[in-house]
TrEMBL record:
CDD domains: PhnB_like. This is PhnB protein. It comes from Parafilimonas terrae. InterPro entries: Glyas_Bleomycin-R_OHBP_Dase, PhnB-like. Residues 4-127 form the PhnB-like domain. It comes from the Bacteria. The lineage of its organism: Bacteria, Pseudomonadati, Bacteroidota, Chitinophagia, Chitinophagales. Gene3D superfamilies: 2,3-Dihydroxybiphenyl 1,2-Dioxygenase, domain 1.
Length: 134
């Protein structure tokens, strides 16, 4: 069975973004630049410092990313990365960490179904936070 892993483009900020997420989720992070790849000689020198592929995997999340895309990326709000938290403390902690340097879209609050909030992080990625009623 196939698995789904978000693959995000960061327009030159992949290393910074993936280290930011690693600081929140912990886990193992690998980063390969174009200049350190077997394809180095097939790419212009100005791309050698760009991240060709990054992969963060922890016990709770898996994210991949790059600075390079086959088409011109355009940020939008059609996709949200949804985090389901185990309790009120976890959702409040994660929401605070992700909001640093970002824009809160919907403040974290308790709704009839549990806690909920959304934001755009400092890298332009949209996140939804949910903690169902226990």
């Amino acid at each position: 069975m196939a698995t789904l892993t978000p693959y995000l483009n960061f327009y030159g900020k992949c290393t910074e973004a993936m280290n930011f997420y690693k600081g929140i989720f912990d886990g193992e992070l690998s980063i390969q630049t174009a200049g350190a790849s077997p394809a180095k000689d097939q790419m212009p020198a100005h791309l050698h410092n760009q991240v060709m592929h990054a992969h963060l995997k922890s016990s709770t999340i898996e994210i991949m990313g790059s600075d390079m895309a086959p088409t011109q990326p355009v940020e939008g709000n059609t996709v949200y990365l949804a985090l389901t938290c185990k309790d009120e403390q976890e959702i409040k902690t994660l929401f605070e960490k992700f909001s640093q340097g970002g824009k809160i879209e919907q403040p974290l609050q308790q709704a009839f179904f549990g806690w909920f909030g959304s934001l755009e992080d400092k890298f332009g990625k949209h996140w939804m936070f949910n903690c169902p009623n226990q």
